[in-house]
Design brief:
Largest sheet: 5 strands, mixed
Shape: globular
Strand order of the largest sheet: 2-4-5-7-6
Number of helices: 6
Radius of gyration: 16 Å
Length: 177
């Protein structure tokens, strides 16, 4: 919560200090999933990762902010997926971009609520019922960072069936490595 509030404050004041470094995005996804596995195991959630590449070109990106984005999406997927559900994290690189998907069999989001999902302090009704502790800041931070990197974030969801959050990052930020 504190990290989210600090991030939002920096975003709103235009004080996000992006510290790009060469990052192995596949390795960071694997680490994020590995850390989140503890939370998934507590709920008997199957947490899978699909990475069809051993190695991809390094991407020039702020590793702390990318970690925050990935953590937020993976942890949210686990939080809002019922016991014994599934969460799948994958990466692909079609054309000149990286596409990261976080798909769950969770509570889903209504069509009406999807329109406000990435706004500050918004929480879907079912999300509040499922996890009253959330702040409604995480997805705002995700969208702000991803768009700041020249990417985009999307969501597909069916209420009661789950959601897929997709991050698209341009490979223009790649570096030799």
């Amino acid at each position: 919560m504190v990290r989210a509030l600090l991030s939002v404050s920096r975003i709103d004041q235009g004080r996000v200090k992006d510290g790009p470094k060469p990052v192995d995005i596949v390795e960071m996804i694997k680490e994020t999933v590995g850390t989140a596995r503890i939370l998934a195991d507590k709920k008997s959630i199957t947490l899978n990762i699909t990475v069809p590449y051993e190695k991809v070109p390094l991407i020039q990106i702020d590793p702390l902010r990318l970690r925050e984005v990935l953590d937020n999406l993976v942890v949210n997927a686990i939080k809002y997926t019922p016991i014994s559900g599934k969460v799948e994290v994958s990466i692909n690189k079609p054309d000149e971009k990286y596409v990261i998907n976080v798909k769950d069999t969770g509570i889903g989001i209504s069509e009406d609520e999807k329109k406000r999902l990435f706004t500050k302090f918004f929480r879907a009704e079912k999300a509040v019922e499922t996890n009253p502790e959330g702040s409604g800041l995480g997805l705002y931070v995700v969208k702000s960072y991803v768009e700041g990197w020249g990417g985009k974030v999307q969501v597909e969801s069916v209420e009661g069936q789950g959601s897929t959050f997709t991050i698209v990052l341009p490979m223009l930020r790649q570096v030799a490595g």
